[in-house]
Specification:
Strand content of chain B: under 5%
Organism (chain B): Brachybacterium halotolerans
Number of helices of chain A: 5
Family (chain B): Belongs to the AzlC family.
Protein name (chain A): AzlD domain-containing protein
Structural class of chain A: mainly alpha
Strand content of chain A: under 5%
Radius of gyration of chain B: 19 Å
Shape of chain A: flat
Helix content of chain A: over 70%
Order of helices and strands of chain B: HHHHHHHHHHHHH
Distance between the termini of chain B: 28 Å
Number of domains of chain A: 1
Number of strands of chain B: 0
Largest interface: A-B, 77 and 105 residues
Keywords (chain B): Cell membrane, Membrane, Transmembrane, Transmembrane helix, Transport
Structural class of chain B: mainly alpha
Number of strands of chain A: 2
Distance between the termini of chain A: 43 Å
Strand order of the largest sheet of chain A: 1-2
Oligomer: heterodimer
Keywords (chain A): Membrane, Transmembrane, Transmembrane helix
Shape of chain B: globular
Largest sheet of chain A: 2 strands, antiparallel
Order of helices and strands of chain A: HHHEEHH
Largest sheet of chain B: none
Chain lengths: 104, 264
């Protein structure tokens, strides 16, 4: 077995174990107010970070391209209470159009 | 998420699993809304598997190695980090380390989801495997526990099926399919994350956390290895959550506490 295979298998198994461990924390821990606040704010922080990196990061660089107008349209549609799928498709269409027109 | 019954929009109903059980009709509305959302997130994300498969084989993995990553590792950020390190000439150990560092956030998701999802057995293992950005985000925004479960399984299973299917397509046909970016799929993913974030922005505090996290992720992007910026941003939640506050009645109802305590 090559080192690459060993790395693939080890990383895959460890990644699964990481997911599993999160569920093994005793439920009582989560009911403490501060812990509860942290766990309810975590998705907000992670989503905020994922929006930013998905919209403006290109590998290790920041990049303003067709994703930004697409995200702006998505935000506008969300403010207008458009359904989720409409928002996602509209963003894809805006980005694809911008790129077809040669920008971003 | 915008198809929820308006009664779901009160801070109390939003405040996760402790919410008093709403009537059956609004729960079933929330369940089907969460399921639809999960499916659409799954399809949009899964299509991106093409780019993973193509990048993996371009980086020197064979089709089987790419598919072991998609089927067992099954967390896109870690998978891209792994093949990125290999493609950049790094060692298998370095690739595994990058993947594991990125996967730390999946442990945090499990922490958040544990009260809502079944423990043990085959379902317990499936629940672990399917714990990723998208399933955790759909569950977190779904309202009542039944809707959280429905959203988690719908998103997790849909992403799993499409991600693996399109990883295989990408690995087999390699770069010839072209750039998913040309189809706007990268922007669609950003919009999906924004759409999942939106309904949680119920108080100034929460908005501040989201904005600060986005800012930190961006300034960390040029200086930290791929994936760590998102993790660094998660520290915002930890710091803000642990800050001392004056006690407010109903201390456990986090979102309600934020509104009552901070907007007065």
């Amino acid at each position: 077995m090559s080192w690459l295979w060993a790395g693939v298998i080890a990383a895959a198994v460890l990644s699964f174990a990481q997911k599993w461990i999160g569920y093994q924390v005793p439920p009582g821990v989560l009911e403490k107010p501060r812990i509860a606040r942290v766990t309810s704010l975590l998705p907000v922080a992670l989503l905020g970070a994922l929006v930013a990196t998905q919209a403006a990061a290109d590998g290790p660089q920041l990049m303003a391209d067709a994703r930004l107008p697409a995200l702006a349209v998505a935000a506008l549609l969300l403010a207008l209470r458009a359904p989720f799928l409409v928002v996602v498709i509209a963003a894809a269409v805006v980005a694809a159009l911008c790129r077809a027109l040669g920008w971003g | 998420m915008n198809t929820h019954d308006p009664s779901d929009r009160s801070p109390a109903a939003r405040s996760a699993h402790e919410a008093p059980s709403p009537d059956a009709a609004s729960v079933s509305l929330a369940v089907s809304a969460a399921r639809r959302k999960g499916l659409s997130v799954g399809v949009a994300t899964g299509l991106y598997g093409i780019s993973f498969g193509a990048l993996a084989t371009a980086s020197g993995l064979d089709v089987w190695q790419a598919m072991v990553l998609s089927a067992i590792m099954f967390t896109g950020g870690s998978q891209f980090a792994f093949v990125g390190v290999i493609g950049g000439g790094g060692s298998a150990l370095g690739a595994a380390l990058a993947a594991v560092l990125l996967g730390i956030r999946n442990t945090l998701y499990g922490l958040v989801l544990a009260p809502t999802l079944p423990r043990g057995g085959a379902k317990g293992a499936a629940r672990s495997l399917l714990t990723i950005d998208e399933s955790a985000a759909v569950a977190a925004t779904a309202g009542p526990p039944a809707a959280k479960r429905a959203g988690f399984w719908a998103a997790g299973i849909a992403v799993y099926v499409f991600w693996n299917l399109f990883s295989l397509v990408g690995a087999l046909i390699g770069q010839s399919v072209g750039d998913p970016g040309a189809w706007g799929l990268d922007a669609a993913a950003a919009a999906a994350f924004l759409g999942l974030l939106w309904p949680r922005l119920v108080s100034k505090d929460v908005v501040a956390v989201a904005v600060a996290a986005a800012f930190i992720a961006l300034i960390a992007t040029p200086v930290l290895p791929a994936g760590l910026p998102v993790l660094a941003a998660a520290l915002v939640a930890v710091v803000v959550g642990l800050l001392p506050r004056r006690p407010v009645a109903g201390g456990n109802r986090v979102d309600a506490t934020d509104e009552d305590g901070e907007q007065a």
